[in-house]
UniProtKB/TrEMBL annotation:
Listed name of the protein: Uncharacterized protein
Top-level division of the source organism's lineage: Eukaryota
InterPro entries: PPR_P_subfamily (IPR050872), PPR_rpt (IPR002885), TPR-like_helical_dom_sf (IPR011990)
Species, as recorded: Spirodela intermedia
NCBIfam families for the chain: PPR (TIGR00756)
Keywords, alphabetical: Repeat
Family annotation (Pfam families): PPR, PPR_2
PPR repeat windows: 51-85, 86-120, 121-155, 156-190, 191-225, 226-260, 261-291, 327-361
Length: 418
C-alpha cells in the first residue's frame, strides 16, 4: 500500500535524520532475530496464551506511563510470540511518540503502517497531527489533513479541535479563527470543545474582543457555555486588568445555572486577592469548600496565598497538613508569605528543608528570601544574604539585582565586589 502523496515523512523534517536509533534496533515489523515469526511458540511461561488485545493493552499502558522505548520492547516480545502488530498497536505507539515528543517515531511508524498493508484510521491521523504541533511543525499539519481526505477519511470534530488548538499555540490564532469560520460555512462538525479551544487561544493571543464575539455566538449555535467557557473568558479579563468585567460574568454563570468547578473558583479568588477584596475572596473560598469538597494542590495554593495576604500566617501553615503534594509554587507562596509577614526564621527553615530534599532548581523562594533579608537594612542580614547567594548553584538576574540593591543600601557594594 502506498503512502498518501500529501502526507509528510521524516524527509520533510531534515532535523530528524538519521532515523530514530531505537527504531533501528527494534523494528516493529518482521520476525524477531532468531525466531520464526508466525510459527513461533505463542505460549507464555505460565502456560497462558496472550493475544493481540492483551499486548495492545500493555503497549498502550507503557506508552502512557513509562515511555515509548519500553513500549517497543513489548512489541518485540509480541513478535517473538508470533503475533503481528495491528492498527491498534501502531496507534498506541504513535500516541506514545506524540506524548513523549518523538516526532521521528511517529513519522516512521506511520510510513511503516502503509508498508505493512495496514490502513491508518482517524485516530492515527489525529495523533500524527498532535505530534507535529507539539514538535513545532504546524506547517506540515495541513498536509496530514489533505492526506486524511485523500484516504477517504472525513475529519472529525476532534481533528479540527487539534488543528485549532495547535494553530493557536503556535501563534496563528488568525488562521485558527479563519479555519473555524470555514467550518461554519461548510457545516463541518464542531462542538462546544471547539468553541472553548478557540476562545482560549484567542484570549491567550490578546484578541479578547474576538473571543467575546465568539462567546456571544454560542447562544445562537445551539451550545450552552460551561464552566470552562466562562472561566476562560474571566481569566482573559483578569489578565488584561479588566477585573470588574471579569467578575460581572459571575452573574451570567449563575443565570445560566452553570456549576462552578474548583478551577473557576480559584480563578475568581486569585483575581479578588489582586484587587485587594479579601473579604469577598474569603466568601468564595468558603463557598468553594462547600461546593467542591476535596481540593487539589492548586486550590490549596490559592487558599494559602489568601491567608498570607490577610496576615493569617498560622492558618496558612495549618493548611499544609491538608495538602497531599507540595509543588514548587506552594513552596514559593510559603516563603514569600513568611517573609512578608516578618517570619524569616520560618522561611529559612523551609529553605533548609528544600536543600535537604535536593531541590534548589526553583529559584523563586530563594530570591524572595534574599530580597527580604536585604530589605531589613541590617549589616548582618545582608551578609547572610551574601552567604546564601554564594551557596546557590543557579542564579538569575533577580537574584543578583536583589543582592546588589541590599549591598548598595548598606554601602557594602564596594566591599563585596572586590
Amino acid at each position: 500500500m502506498l503512502m498518501p502523496p500529501a502526507c509528510p515523512t521524516r524527509n520533510d523534517v531534515p532535523a530528524l535524520n538519521p532515523p530514530d536509533e531505537h527504531l533501528r534496533r527494534v523494528p516493529v515489523q518482521g520476525p524477531a532475530p532468531g525466531h520464526g515469526g508466525a510459527g513461533g511458540d505463542r505460549r507464555d511461561s505460565d502456560g497462558m496464551h496472550p493475544d493481540v488485545v492483551t499486548y495492545n493493552t500493555l503497549v498502550s499502558a507503557y506508552c502512557r506511563l513509562v515511555g515509548v522505548d519500553e513500549a517497543y520492547l513489548v512489541v518485540h516480545r509480541m513478535r517473538e510470540m508470533g503475533l503481528k502488530p495491528d492498527v491498534v498497536t501502531y496507534n498506541s505507539l504513535i500516541t506514545g511518540a506524540a506524548r513523549w515528543r518523538r516526532l521521528s517515531c511517529s513519522l516512521d511508524l506511520f510510513e511503516e503502517m502503509h508498508q505493512a498493508g495496514l490502513q491508518p484510521d482517524s485516530w492515527t491521523y489525529n495523533n500524527l497531527l498532535h505530534c507535529l504541533f507539539k514538535s513545532g511543525y504546524p506547517d506540515l499539519a495541513f498536509r496530514v489533513l489533505t492526506a486524511m481526505e485523500s484516504a477517504n477519511l472525513a475529519p472529525s470534530s476532534t481533528t479540527y479541535n487539534i488543528l485549532i488548538n495547535g494553530l493557536c499555540k503556535s501563534g496563528n490564532a488568525g488562521s485558527a479563527l479563519a479555519l473555524f469560520r470555514y467550518l461554519q460555512r461548510v457545516g463541518s462538525p464542531r462542538g462546544l470543545v471547539t468553541y472553548n479551544t478557540l476562545i482560549d487561544g484567542l484570549c491567550k493571543c490578546g484578541r479578547v474582543g474576538e473571543a467575546r464575539t465568539l462567546f456571544r455566538e454560542l447562544a445562537g449555535s445551539g451550545f450552552i457555555p460551561n464552566a470552562v467557557t466562562y472561566t476562560t473568558m474571566m481569566k482573559s479579563y483578569f489578565r488584561s486588568g479588566r477585573f470588574e468585567e471579569g467578575l460581572s460574568m459571575l452573574d451570567e454563570i449563575r443565570r445560566e445555572g452553570s456549576r462552578f468547578d474548583a478551577f473557576a473558583y480559584c480563578t475568581v479568588i486569585s483575581a479578588l486577592i489582586k484587587m485587594g477584596k479579601m473579604e469577598e475572596a474569603s466568601d468564595f473560598l468558603e463557598e468553594m469548600h462547600g461546593q467542591c469538597g476535596t481540593l487539589d494542590t492548586v486550590c490549596y495554593n490559592t487558599h494559602i496565598n489568601l491567608c498570607f495576604k490577610q496576615g493569617k500566617v498560622d492558618d496558612a501553615l495549618d493548611l499544609l497538613n491538608k495538602v497531599d503534594e507540595i509543588d514548587d509554587y506552594t513552596v514559593s507562596i510559603l516563603v514569600d508569605g513568611l517573609c512578608k509577614n516578618n517570619r524569616l526564621p520560618d522561611a529559612y527553615h523551609l529553605l533548609k528543608y528544600m536543600a535537604t530534599m535536593g531541590s534548589q532548581s526553583n529559584l523563586v523562594p530563594y530570591n524572595c528570601f534574599i530580597q527580604a533579608l536585604c530589605k531589613q537594612g541590617k549589616v548582618e542580614s545582608v551578609d547572610f544574604a551574601m552567604t546564601l547567594f554564594n551557596k546557590l548553584e543557579i542564579k538569575d538576574s533577580f537574584t543578583y539585582t536583589s543582592l546588589l540593591r541590599g549591598l548598595s543600601k548598606m554601602g557594602g557594594f564596594l566591599k563585596h565586589s572586590q
